[in-house]
Structures are given as C-alpha cells and as structure tokens.
Amino acid sequence: MAAYILRRLLLIIPTLFGILLLNFVLVQFAPGGPVEQTLAQLQGFGDAAGNRIGSSQQSDVAAGSQNESGYRGAQGLDPSLVAEIERLYGFDKPAHERFYQMLVSYLQFDFGKSFYSDKSVTDLIIEKLPVSISLGLWTTLLTYLISVPLGIRKAVRDGSAFDVWTSSAIIVGYAIPNFLFAILLIVLFAGGTYLEWFPLRGLTSQNFDQLTWWQQIGDYFWHITLPVLASVVSSFATLTMLTKNSFLDEINKQYVLTARAKGLGENAVLYRHVFRNAMLLIIAGMPAALIGIFFTGSMLIEVIFSLDGLGLLGYEAVINRDYPVIFGTLYIFTLAGLLMKLVSDITYTLVDPRIDFSSREV
Known about the structure:
Elements: H1 2-28, H2 34-43, H3 47-53, H4 55-63, H5 79-88, H6 95-107, H7 121-156, H8 161-175, H9 178-189, H10 213-251, H11 254-261, H12 266-278, H13 280-284, H14 286-297, H15 299-304, H16 310-320, H17 323-351
C-alpha cells in the first residue's frame, strides 16, 4: 500500500503541471486581460487604473503620442506608459519565462498578490474559506442523511408505489439545475414575489456581533437555509440512486439468501451483512464528493445568494482577469482534489480490507 501511495503522490506532479500548462496557454489567447482593461480605463481616465499607476503616468496619457504596442487599446498612449502597465502585471517578460516563474513560486506555495484587491491570494482564500466550508459541510451532511436512508428504503421496496413516486421526485430534482432551484426559492421564500421568510444576501445579519450567542446561531441557520437547500436538491438524486443500486446488487447475492435461509431477520440481514458491502462505494466516494461541493458545486449558489466564498471569488477573478487568483485557486483546488482522490482509495481499503491497491498499476 505504501508503494501505491508513493506512486500516486508522484503522479500528482505531472498532472498538476499539465493542468497549469493547459490553462496558462489558453489564457494567453483570451482577450480582455488586465493590461487591456487598464488601457481601456485609461482611455476614459478611469479612477481604478489611475490609482494603480500613479499621477505621473497619467500625465503621459494626455500627451498621447502614437506607440508600437501590440495592444489595440493602446493607440494614442505613451509607449513608456504601456510598458509600465505591462511591468506592473508581469507581462513585460516572455510567456515561457512567466510560466517558469509561476511554477517556482507555486512549489513554495507563494501565489502572489491579486491584481485588484492588493491582497495575497493565500489571504483571500483563507478569508473566503469559512463561507464555502459552511455551505459545503451542511450540504454534504444533509445529502448523505437524506440519500442513504432513502436509497436503502427504495432498494427494500423496489418496484412498489413508494419506489415509483420517490423516483419521479428524484428525477425532477435531478433535472432542475441548482441555480434555477435557488432562484425559485428566492421567488417563493426570500421576498422575490411571495413570502419573505428568509434573507436574500449574506451568511449573517449586519448586527450579528451585537447578538447573543444563541441568537447568532439562529441567525446563521436563518441565512444558510436556502443556499443549503438549493445545493442539496440538485446533489442528492445521484447518491440516492447509487445507494439503491448498490443495495439491490448485494441483496440478490448468494450470501444474503444463505443468511435468510438460516433464519436471520430482515433487519439483521440488511444491516449486518448487506450494509457494509453496499456502502463501500458510497463511503469511499465521500471525500471526493466533499471536495467537489466545496470548490465547484457552490459557485452559482454563492453568486445568487451573495455569499462571499471561494465560488464567488473564482467567478469575480475570471470576470476581472485576475490571473494570480485564477491560477492560485486552480493550483490549490486541483491539488486538494487529487489528494482527496487518494484519500478515497485509502478509504476503500479501510472499509473493505480485501481490496488491495498495492498490486495494481496506477
């Protein structure tokens, strides 16, 4: 097992390199980068651009001599000003040199500073992480608490009226995207059109610090209810059907028939013999599901409910072409995802010692 873990850890290196290289190449061809945005703001004398490069360079804008820059928006701007903007964002170096410097920094977990917030990428992630952890943790917990018992019940009563109507409800829930269901919840319960039972924005109220501890707990759950509900509805369908199919597959095996023939009750057969084998795939997949909900599944939910988490951070970084944040979060999330996949494999062996990865090729 140790040799298998070592091979998987070594495989992370080329995987990370390939993902970063592919995204870096794509970014080079994407229009509207930070240099172009700053040039566009300077053409209109935008305050944001002016604050970043200083008043001395702004006077050069007024001079407005023609330049030989490759940027379309640089027409009429002083070449030295354009060069200063390129240096500010690190675009004064060739692409391969910038990529090499990025890799060296990332190996030291130095992700640089955001182009726009003047904070380090690490500080931004730490600042936004509690919101995403709250959303992801409650979503994962409720998804498993609902899906596993429901899946077992559907397997036991396969083909019954209960199985049919719950399958219909699951299909409807699976067909509705989480962002669309979130909008529906806002319309119905957050003052969109009908009821105004829940707040629309944020994870806490503005007077949260002035509340007592039990009022703070109530305020937190009051705000998190709709986002978590929107996330759960779209994610429990797959897990429910996976649980049902796993139990059905085990129930029809010979050892279950033998246990029943020995006179064991249905609950004893189900939870002593079937449960451990059927739950193998579900339990082992929990780490990967958790990391997926944390870093990918919550983006649209955070945007819709104005939750200042990692999903919203990534969305704003892409919109603003904040490359340090884009690549820093990509590196961290990819590394975390690869490590959690390894944890999933290790979990397989803990749940069922008969599984041995050491004899397998990666």
